């Protein structure tokens, strides 16, 4: 992605913890090995797992022109290397952190895509996009399992990016990457310092912002436009959307769940909402 001087960005600040991290689990590690934007510092695998993944590893070497030189280790060795309780499936790699993506980068990509599709200027009101461009925004969702599942859904249903808060959010750790099952390598996970300011930028770029809330005035499927730019905002479990976040949504919407059991966790709700945006888009 295009580089900017950090002073020009209102998105994620410089990450003081940027560096290397252990990734583990078959899908997460294979996706990282196949990502040219990751530097692989060490690759550890058990003999049993290596024998099961021979074709996948060979394909990664062919496609990336990256020579994989694994350390053959025992399960007990991986247990020592990784956090307690890590479900590693016999494979792990020590990889560089991904280069940070900023909200300005995402919005610029959207703008360039519109220009390529024939939009003459920001004031070209006759331009009508085909389908929908979707951003998913998380308001202080902290559980890495939920966020990993959300990233999987966002990648599966073609969202442009997942945007979260810098603080009180799930960081892109090994456990999140494992839960994302490789999706962290395919969809930008963007942190912002000020979510309200980010929502203002997103709206200035022409997105309609829909906050998911049980008391939403319309069902999401009824509220969505047939095409255009859409931002879905999900709140944390229990607390939901914060007040200022709600006030910066164009509309609060709900999902048509059963009255007798109307509660979905945030990752399930995100999957349903993303499906609705992809359906008939």
UniProtKB/TrEMBL annotation:
Alphabetized GO MF terms: RNA binding; RNA methyltransferase activity
CC terms in the record's Gene Ontology section: cytosol
Top-rank taxon, per record: Bacteria
Record keyword Methyltransferase present: yes
UniProt KW keywords: Methyltransferase, Transferase
Domain RNA 2-O ribose methyltransferase substrate binding, residue spans: 22-101
One example of a Gene Ontology biological process annotation: methylation
Ranges annotated as spanning the membrane: none
Classification via Pfam families: SpoU_methylase, SpoU_sub_bind
PANTHER family: 23S RRNA (GUANOSINE-2'-O-)-METHYLTRANSFERASE RLMB
Protein name in UniProt: RNA 2-O ribose methyltransferase substrate binding domain-containing protein
